[in-house]
Amino acid sequence: MAVQSLPDGYPQFIERADGARIWDVDGREYLDLMSSWGPIVLGHRYPAVEEAVRAQAVAGDCFDGTSPRMVELAEAFVDLVPYADWAMFAKNGTDATTLCCTIARAHTGREIIVVARGAYHGAAPWCTPYPAGVTAADRQNLVYFEYNDIDSLHAAIAGIEDRVAAVIACPVRHDVRREQELAEPQFARALRETCDRIGALLVLDEVRTGFRLDARGSWESFGVRPDLSAWSKAIANGYALSAVLGRADLRDAAGRVYTTGSFWFSAVSMAASLATLRVVSTPAFESNLRAAGQQLRTGLLAQAEAHGFRVRYTGPVQMPLLTFADDDDFALGNAWASAAINNGVYVHPYHNWFLNAAHTPEVIEEILQRTDAAYAALAGQPVAERGLLTG
Amino acid sequence: MAVQSLPDGYPQFIERADGARIWDVDGREYLDLMSSWGPIVLGHRYPAVEEAVRAQAVAGDCFDGTSPRMVELAEAFVDLVPYADWAMFAKNGTDATTLCCTIARAHTGREIIVVARGAYHGAAPWCTPYPAGVTAADRQNLVYFEYNDIDSLHAAIAGIEDRVAAVIACPVRHDVRREQELAEPQFARALRETCDRIGALLVLDEVRTGFRLDARGSWESFGVRPDLSAWSKAIANGYALSAVLGRADLRDAAGRVYTTGSFWFSAVSMAASLATLRVVSTPAFESNLRAAGQQLRTGLLAQAEAHGFRVRYTGPVQMPLLTFADDDDFALGNAWASAAINNGVYVHPYHNWFLNAAHTPEVIEEILQRTDAAYAALAGQPVAERGLLTG
């Protein structure tokens, strides 16, 4: 089996999942560090979420109108996230990021959206990372700046300040195929100040970070609150849901934007989100996830040193990425990921990983036993030479 | 309770659903003729679909990669739909219509999409029916023609034939706030011929019609097959899923378009779709649904006449719309819908209805008993006068 764009050894088809483990169709077990690319934040098939799903499914899911779950969930988000005065729900992360831009345009009467170069905000023509089928008009109202570089933002908007509807940014620079990069607090604050100065909205794309770093909002500890934010992936522990949260004075614009989907009122994913939110909003969840991330980081770095590899471990520990020094073509990263998958650990060579609450200290220890074997296997391969400390 | 844009009496919150019935949070029961705006094609909580869902949920839903269900479902669609050589899956109908346009652009290297004026193809900025937050650039590469008017298509593309990537059309003119209109076979054939002549693709938007009119493709009986088609709503009997089907020679372009979503590989909705497809592909399903539609049409028209109202009953009988003559502002339509909802029938005054397989002859009879009471109630209202045959 081969999977397009993943190294040798990755399974094409997954059969089942439970807690921190997934099994492919050939019965091979993997300890999962990708968490289904983010949605699984409590572990696969987390009992309280599955129970909420079963209870809602008995009544039904997709009705002629919304169920009471939508109000309950909107209220739960508004209670959780300090800047949020309302919530609306959709299915894809892309639905939510696109809606934020559309609401910002409706509110400001302006057209330009300012985006960090290389950032991923979804897979619609305006934001998809590859050009096939995309027209120039799809990007006509976008301008670009460099993440963590406020001067580049000022340069990008010079002379068009009064045409900028919004600046959209991820809370972390989690671009693929590069080391991950935390936002600098002064950069986040400067984004907020610039938006306020020019009358533009600050949109935070929490699709990948939401419920993993700080459930109240990933920049809450910086004291930086956006006007609008987009959420998806982890908010319902694997059930299809996304959300837009916003400030009270944007309610009118949000109400004027026509948007809907056939399944946007479905109650089951909202029941799942309510059950997920109850867990992620506890201090124990947050500290345990951080501790798991720290344990994994410490272990993987110690193993790299023990096996003589020069590695970089970047990003928040809950969403890390392991890369190898002087490995621009990811030959070494790919080889290590192959060795990891062959030893039963599902990671990614150039996209951030996602920890979840099923990564207990015991599971992390089991992962580390397997990654130690992966490093050992890698050390015996020709490609490893260029990554070795003594190489 | 009041619902924005629906007449008085409509429930805001739905609590549960079963077969042809829904119940609001106050315990009021309705016979449902909207089928959750299309997704419910076998009836709410259809046993074989719910059983497939439960079986898949035990293994899991949202994995790190796809499950075997995706291959099984793609093969089932390709077996069912004569022109389809491959399938890809997403969540929203809008995902599927947008993807069709993007694939057409990638394949042809052209930018223009030709759209019927007033047609609904989804709620993204390029197609949403209301302008809030939409920029001119979002529509820059669209040109418009009039449905069922091939001359208007030729006029729309005059001089730009070699820039047209695709013509997108619904199999039925099911625009809101107007009488529904079947496609004329010669119009459908002329669309096909025109696309072939200018080297553009024909995209059929089956989101609303799919699995309701002819599961093989709504224009199959005309002998007209599109190059690409978009499906959603009914294909998984209420579970969130959409699909793009295409011809073999478009596989390369479809593979080059970067598109994905966090929940696009989820297995539960695909298991639901497999179970749904098994039913809708049977001759009995199709003839029963048509018979139910005919029974409803005959009954509602007879009642209108008996109560002295001049009405129009348009669209396919499986997706009909009842409107009143000389009722451009829908005052009478709204009043009748209010009377219907107050008598326990959930219809819509200006959006097509959707029949489903739970509409047995007995259920249709029960609906008609209730609509008879609705006509009677309407006849006693001042607004009714202008719709009366003798008025």
Automatic annotation (TrEMBL), chains A, B:
InterPro entries given in the database record: Aminotrans_3, Aminotrans_3_PPA_site, PyrdxlP-dep_Trfase, PyrdxlP-dep_Trfase_major, PyrdxlP-dep_Trfase_small
Q: Which SUPFAM superfamilies match?
A: PLP-dependent transferases
* Keyword Transferase attributed: yes
Q: Which PROSITE patterns match?
A: AA_TRANSFER_CLASS_3 (PS00600)
- Transferase recorded as keyword: yes
Question: Which is an annotated Pfam family here?
Answer: Aminotran_3
Query: Which species?
Result: Dactylosporangium fulvum
The entry's family comment says:
Belongs to the class-III pyridoxal-phosphate-dependent aminotransferase family.
**Highest taxon listed in the record's lineage:** Bacteria
The signal peptide here is none
Q: What is this protein called?
A: Aminotransferase class III-fold pyridoxal phosphate-dependent enzyme
What's one GO MF term for it?
transaminase activity
Listed A to Z, the keywords are: Aminotransferase, Pyridoxal phosphate, Transferase
Query: Which cofactors is this protein said to need?
Result: pyridoxal 5'-phosphate
